[in-house]
């Protein structure tokens, strides 16, 4: 038992959300402030790194201050600062890392660097206070597609990754092709509800030498070809059917790989994480598959699926009690590997 | 007053502690390591070395731009975090003004130039006046190197150049300038946090400071994506 509650101030700025949170003992969220830049990046059809970095530096202090205020505490009550230092956009990450280091230096408190994916996985610890490792976790977002065996807190085995596009990236590209705009995930999900998922058969890629790896670029190309061919023939496409069929193809592969890995490694718990974990088709398919296999399924509420700092505070807490401490030379690492410290 | 100065606008990383008319410590490194890895360890070193109480600072000063976008943000994120935690204000010092402070008391026209790529320099023109100290003749701006030389030829006064732009543009200057000129030597030709701290003190006393929350770098240029978007708009408008 810990003698005293550990209060962590967490900062996340790896992509286009400036976020800060105060989290107690890795599980209880006192505040979770997110400033989203999405409106600005929508004009460019995707995240512009330099603009993201500029917005982060404008908002970082206000977001941190709001997180402290809402948690009704000051920096004097904070035991450590946890900050995302990779993977992500380097210029964006540097804002959070720079501010976190300065705060720790000024207040003489420990600095804990956190892996962004470790944060996404840990969002499940906030959602379900009783969830403990080991479990199988599928991390799917705009930038990442990882199938991870969570062996213990802070201990991971990566079983599969995407060979090309992340699942969320495929959603964005398909959304653009059928004229839905950015960000694609929620828009495809919504339109797909009006379509027939079996209307068009799109390919489900298998990687011959790695059972659990993913590939979505072939699927994306198949969707684009379908649209182009219809256009050349002068045929109108049913956008809802395209969205539903594409989404089903993604969901099938994600579900199949996750269930196969859970079975092979004898896991009785499966968790989803990352922005695409909010996708209704993926959730439903995973619910059905887990029910059938007798496994417990966990997934965070939508606000904990998107990039946020509460999840970094949870991951940071477990890193903190495991003794992870970073020095003043902590740098942003855009391609940081999961488990690297 | 005690002030902590930072400059990470270019290749140089520099931190300094100044108190009234004393420079207590200054640590400057001109090496390829990223500022994210050097700036805080350097600050830690000088604070420890001089047994400085972190709560004894009255203000922070930072070279606020122009400069490398990433370098500026590392400096800004650092002072913003410190300002939040120590509850002290931030003085944004224009980078070119900070460079001009290196040449305090110089009788020549002072022309700091920073390589801004695309055949441009970030530059400004400054002069020291015995009564009023540093005077700005031309506010800092991005400028084609040829346009700058033309302007200096018009003013037709002896000029001293400094900054990281002196190296890449040395030959152009030599070729096209018609006035007498010199290049500042190694100990004063790059960014120094001591200059930022001292310039910061002057600005602070004039009431030119802001909160850490308000502070942001002054880039003097929009991002490439914004520039291209504007250009696309213009082309469309002309069609």
How many discrete structural domains of chain B? 2
| Assigned CATH architecture of the largest domain in chain A | 2-Layer Sandwich
Number of helices in the DSSP assignment of chain B: 7
Count up the helices of chain A.
11
Strand content of the residues of chain A, in percent? 15-25%
Could you name the CATH homologous superfamily of the largest domain in chain B?
ATPase, nucleotide binding domain
Shape of chain A: globular
Query: Helix amount of chain A, in percent?
Result: 40-55%
Strands ordered across the widest β-sheet of chain A: 3-2-1-4-5
Class by SSE composition of chain A: alpha/beta
Rg value of chain A: 20 Å
Q: What CATH first level of the largest domain in chain A would be assigned?
A: Alpha Beta
Uncertain segments of chain A:
none
CATH superfamily of the largest domain in chain A: ATPase, nucleotide binding domain
Shape of chain B: globular
- What's the number of domains of chain A? 2
Note the run of SSEs of chain A as H and E: EEEHHEHEHEEEHHHHEHEHH
The major beta sheet of chain B can be summarized as:
5 strands, mixed
Any idea of the CATH topology of the largest domain in chain A? Answer: Nucleotidyltransferase, domain 5
Q: Mean pLDDT score of chain B, rounded?
A: 96
Explain how this protein is built.
- The complex is a heterodimer of chains A (about 350) and B (about 240).
- Chain A has about 350 residues and is an alpha/beta fold.
- Chain A has 2 domains: about 5-125 and about 305-320, ATPase, nucleotide binding domain (Nucleotidyltransferase, domain 5, 2-Layer Sandwich), CATH 3.30.420.40; about 135-300, Nucleotidyltransferase, domain 5 (2-Layer Sandwich).
- Chain A has 11 helices and 10 strands.
- In chain A, strands 3-2-1-4-5 form a 5-stranded mixed sheet, sandwiched between helices. Chain A has a 5-stranded mixed sheet with strand order 8-7-6-9-10, with helices on both faces.
- In chain A, helix 5 (about 165-175) packs antiparallel against helix 8.
- The longest helix of chain A is centred in the C-terminal third of the chain and has 26 residues, at about 240-265.
- Chain A is globular.
- Chain B is of the alpha/beta class and about 240 residues long.
- Chain B has 2 domains: about 1-95 and about 190-225, Nucleotidyltransferase, domain 5 (2-Layer Sandwich), CATH 3.30.420.40; about 105-190, Nucleotidyltransferase, domain 5 (2-Layer Sandwich).
- Chain B contains 7 helices and 10 strands.
- In chain B, the strands form 2 sheets. In chain B, strands 3-2-1-4-5 form a 5-stranded mixed sheet, sandwiched between helices.
- In chain B, helix 3 crosses helix 6 (about 195-205).
- The radius of gyration of chain B is 18 Å and the shape is globular.
- Chains A and B meet through helix 2 and helix 3 of A and helix 1, helix 2 and helix 7 of B.
